[in-house]
Specification:
Radius of gyration: 18 Å
Mean pLDDT: 86
Number of domains: 2
Shape: globular
Low-confidence stretches: 1-5
Strand order of the largest sheet: 2-1-3-5-4
């Protein structure tokens, strides 16, 4: 048997799977989506562009550098489909971007590599759109039973605007950890292990 190609891996864990599994291990899908078969996204890439424009004009889009949409699984329907819900979804969807080819696949690979090196990540996957392109989807960890869970990222602690959030040094982040963490030494050591 040859080395598995992109069509023969699980789009959740990144490990090999059989063609019959259709790119998703049942256990992985159950863990990510609560169902043995992942939900579908009944929208094409062009539909997503229109929806994103609509959400931005209604000020219900999510902040950040990359375009993204908030979704939830429609549990009231018999069909296993994701639906757009403004800001209060259970998942974040990042579709393909014209200027950066295969960005969702790149983000998925990066997160799988982080998992491989035992760096904690949010649950993540690739899902095909109705038009066939893959989109990156991640489970939200800043929500619990429709309640917001307070979280801060390094950009906030460094008092950086969204557009400047990637303009910081490892040294600056280390100093913030030493300043704000309760377990300063342990957290600084963990951070050092991650970046060295």
């Amino acid at each position: 048997m040859g080395r598995p190609g992109m069509n023969e891996i699980c789009y959740i864990c990144g490990k090999p799977c059989s063609k019959e599994e259709n790119n998703y291990h049942r256990a992985c899908s159950k863990k990510m989506f609560g169902t043995p078969v992942p939900p579908s996204i009944p929208f094409s890439i062009n539909d997503l562009k229109k929806l994103a424009t609509q959400f931005i004009s209604q000020k219900t889009s999510m902040t950040g550098v990359q375009k993204k949409l908030s979704l939830s699984i429609n549990r009231e329907s018999k069909e296993n489909k994701l639906t757009f819900v403004g800001l209060w979804g259970d998942y974040i969807l990042k579709p393909q971007v014209e200027h950066y080819r295969q960005l969702p696949e790149n983000e998925f690979l990066t997160m799988c590599l982080a998992d491989l090196y035992q760096i904690r990540t949010v649950p993540h996957a690739l899902l095909p759109l109705a038009s066939g392109e893959l989109a990156y989807i991640t489970k939200r960890i800043d929500r619990s039973n429709s309640n917001k869970v307070h979280m801060e990222d390094m950009a906030q602690l460094l008092q950086k605007m969204t557009e400047d959030k990637y303009r910081a040094s490892v040294e600056q982040i280390g100093k913030i950890i030493l300043k704000h963490c309760e377990n300063r030494v342990l957290d600084a050591l963990h951070f050092y292990e991650l970046v060295s």
